[in-house]
Structure formats: structure tokens, C-alpha cells
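Bench notes, afternoon.
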Amino acid sequence: MILRPRQKILVERSLAALKEHGNTLAVAPTGAGKTIMLSGVTGQWLADSNAKACVLAHRDELTSQNESKFRRVNPGVSTSTFDADGKSWSGQTTFAMVQTLCRESSLQRMPLLDLLVIDEAHHAAAPSYRRIIDQVREQNPKIAIFGVTATPNRGDKKGLRPVFDNVADQISLTELIQAGHLVPPRTFVVDVGTQEALIKVKRSVDEFDMAEVGAIMNHTPINQAVVKHWKDKAGDRKTVVFCSTVDHARDVATAFNDSDTHTVVVHGGLSKQERHDALAAYETGSAQVMVNVAVLTEGWDHPPTDCVVLLRPSSYQSTLLQMIGRGLRTIDPNEHPGLTKTDCIVLDFGTSTLLHGSLEQNVDLDGEEADDTAPKKTCPDCEARIPLALRQCPLCGFSWAAEPKSQGLEKQEKPALDDFVMSEVDLFKRSSFLWSDLFGDDAALMATGFEAWAGVFFFSGGWHALGGGRALSTRLLAVGPRPICLARANDWLNEHETEDAARKSRRWLKQTATVAQLKYLPPEYRQDFGLTRYHASCLLAFRFNKRDIQSRVFSATKRREVA
């Protein structure tokens, strides 16, 4: 398995921080492949040594998932599990359930560890985690501790500081969008006459006073105006709405339902069955809009969601990005046939994008070069060393964001940016495999290795990504903008090929096509003395799989037209 270029950068920066500090935290949002990066850091730390590592997780499914992905990244490293079903430390890397390992009897039998890895590291401040951390540090004061999370803990302001004193790297949502792994947002800031009042709302230690926000936002004319603006900008889209209070959510849902838009409500006061029914109604398509209060900021995704409505401000940029992130996932065409998703509309009726800067404006270009040393700064609140590009400290929540100005905001309704440009050139440049323009018309691109191939094809007004291989059936990977299709196709090759295979295939760029290859190509290619072995391999992969490729592209096009 091959890591993405940006994943490799995070791994290198994390290893450098571990060497310098003995601990470090890495932050990466959903879609970045944090388990793959966690595995890369662990495997390289253990390389050519007898060191022993333990990877902590707080759910059974995470333990098994982490071990499975770790083996793909590090096939030569032995593993074992320590959970309710089995308690073994036999592997060089042990995957442990926190709830099982934190028991006193388990801690006493724990061997000497050289590296402790904490998945979902925002839980590291919890007592169960601290018992484990304190024990391993007592056994080995020089132990290295590495954590990775998508959502650093903001509630306990300095909860992570006893474990981590620095942040090695943070992958932003913007980077994933630029790389084609998420769809771009189209952000609109809309003032329905409440922005001046919202700017003055008091903030507690952790968040704005949501009761005060509700008193400002929850009025029938305002709720009706929200629905009107939503219908104008995104009336046919699957939509998630974030509200301040339960009463606010109920009243907003009423306004949507009164406008003949089937809407459901989700909040913490619902029973498990009520919450399940509401989510099911939205996910199956019977409800178009889902209104929620603080329960969908993380841990839930429905990829067809392509509109996010913000009816509350957020003190923390991380919360803003989590809310927007509910609408940025790309669509698997096999799970949602006929659907194509090119962007996500964000309607901000609060002040979050004014306070923190829109997602589009918060571009982190720091990770463009494969350098293991990123410029750092010191957080003035908790004194942690963090990447210079960050505007908010992942360890304590201190923000460098400027307060929004009230002047000139009244009756504002405009996109935060006119457009969002994805760096498609980088996708070609930074891929482990060369992408060949098969026929010179930029409409059929192929890349190939020893075990797998991938292609991106333009047909009937849309791009399609497909993958297959020696022992792999042809599969439709994505339908949508070319950068997203390229990203999916690259991931397919990365999943099924190795770095060694990528190096060997690059040698084919300097070699002429072989006699055996020319035998299966049309006669005109035998006169092309510039034809490389690699380009010939791509042409052959297309010819041998042409029927399957056409069948899946035609079927996807028909489903899209029907939808």
C-alpha cells in the first residue's frame, strides 16, 4: 500500500516531532486517512528495531479496523490484540481497547512499551486513558507518545497539555478539497437582520451563550426568511441545519414543513429510537432537511448531503469546520447510484465565517512541499509548539482570529468567495504513478502498476473514475469533477500497489514498448518510435478492459440522466 503525498508529509513531521519532544499530536479531518497515517508513523518508528508499540482505541470496531489497516501498511510487523475477546502482547504492535487495558489487573501485566499511540486522541484527558498513560510513563520515562485526532478537545481547555506539548502537523479541510478528496464549499453569508445582535452575544469559556442566540434567531419572520433564502439558493438539496437550542430547532423545522419541505429534528433529548427514526427518514430520502442541535458536528456522515445551514455562531473554528464538513464528503457511485455531487452550499446566517474567515480563505499551503520541518509558533495561552499556519491551537483552543466588525454587515448577502480553485496540476505532479493521456484529447487518462490500473474518462458531460486489476474486477469509483475522480483513481492504485511497484513502473518511462506489447496494439502504434513501455501498458489496460469500462460508464450516465 502507498500513502498519499500529504499523508507522507504528516508522517515525516510526526516522526521528527517525536524525536525532538518525545510526544506529539497530529490533527487530520475525516477523509484524510488518519488510521493509515497512524500506521505509517508506528511502522517507521519500529523499523529495524526490537521496540514495542501499543495502539489505543476506545471502541471494538476501531481496534479491529486499526489492526487491519496497519497490516496493509506494515505487512512485516507482527500484531496482536488486547481486548475483551483476547489478551495478547505477542505482537511487536498490540492493538488495545482502553476499557480493557485500564483495569488494574491488565496494567500490572503490561510489558515495557517504547511507543504509545492514541487514536481519537481528544479522549486522552479521560481518567481511563490517563491511568494507562501514567502507567506506561512510570514503566518507561522515555516512552514516545503519539496521538491523532480529527477533533481536538476544546471543552477541557488544557485537558491535553499533560500528554502533548506540541502539534506536529494539521491537515486542513481545504487541503483535502484541493486534492479532490472532498467537494468544495460555496459559502454565502446572509444577514436576516440579526448579525449586529449576534456579534454582541456573550461567550462562556467554551462557547457562545446559545440561549441568547436562540432569543435573537428564533422568531417566526426570521425562520420564514431562512426558508426563503434556502429555497432560493439550495431548494433541491439534501440539507443539514445547525440550530442554537431545542426550541429553535423545532420552530425552524416547523417553518420548513409549513413550506412543504419534509423536515425532521434531531437533538440530545430524543430517545434512541426517535433519533434512529429521524436519521433513517433523512438518509432514505423521505425527509429532505434535518435540523439538529449539537449532535451532528462529528461522528455522523451522509455523503449525499450537499447543503449546510448555520443558524448559530461558533467560538471555535474547529466546530465550524466540523459542521461544514457534514456536507463535504464525496459520493461512492456504488452506494448512491445516479447521484453526482460537485460542491456543497453553505448558508451562514450567523457570524461564524465572519469570525473565523471562510473555509475557502483559510488555505494552508504549508504542506505543499515534502519537508519534515514545518514553521512553528508558540501558543501564548498554553505554550504549545504548533504549526505556524494554524489560527487556533488544537491543544487549548486559543484563537488568533480577529473579532468581526459590525460596520457594513447589515443586509449583506454575498458569496464569501466567488469560486474555489482546486489544484488539479498537483494531482498529476504528486501521484506515485504517471497519468497517460491515452489518445491525446485529454478525455481518457490511465495509470497502471503491476496489480492494478485506474482510469478517468469524460463522457456525456461528466467525468468517471474506474479501477481494476489482475485479480480485481472493474469498479466504478467516482462520478463528478475531474479532480475528485483523479483523487479516487489515485487512491485505488495506492491501495492495491506498493512503492516498489511504483518505482519499477516509472522505469518504463525510459524504455520503448516491447515486441509483446506491440503485438496486441493496432498496427499504427508499431510506427510510433516514441511509444514508451508505460504508455503501451496503459493502452493495453484500456483495450483489455474496454468492454467493462464502457459498460460501467454507460450505466452510470443512464442512472444520472434518470435521477
